[in-house]
Design goal:
With 173 residues, the protein is mainly α. It has a single domain, classed as Orthogonal Bundle (Aldehyde Ferredoxin Oxidoreductase Protein, subunit A, domain 3). The chain is built from six helices and two strands, in the order ααααββαα. α1 packs across α4. The two termini are 36 Å apart.
Amino acid sequence: MWLQHAYDRFTLHDKPHVAKLFEDLWSFGNSAILCVFTSRGLGNQYKYPQIRSLLEAETGLRLSPEEMLAIGERNYALLRLHSSRAGYRQSANRLPQRFHQPLHHGASANHPIDPESFREALQSYNTERGYDDYGPTDAILSKLGLDDCLGIIHRTKSAQRESGTLRGREGEL
């Protein structure tokens, strides 16, 4: 579940999983109304065991690291559900074109982000999260215990066809 090794910063391999972990962790912090600058989650700055201890002292609620991530995942799903209701679609996730062009100097020189690799990583990320183009599916909302949110987003094949997310095996509409 947690990070098991260092990751190559010049590849997107395994990054969707890492992105999800960090988003869930930070989303837990947001749901607990913690200042992101005082509750960093990396290295020797990892404060979440102390935060869980303080939360237990204040509320009597004892959370495991897995429960903490589950809270973060629910919170993040609600954020994406709200975004979807406002018209945002996962297919709008794109990087500015300059990220796909190589830098000429510095530590990242000659390491642009390959557009196809990025698209594949986003697809893998959405699959890992259980999201479609609209965000969290009813299946993932139910899994997260958010049954009262089921059916909030109206998903139609014609809307998917218009957004270009309903594709055949060859990537055609």
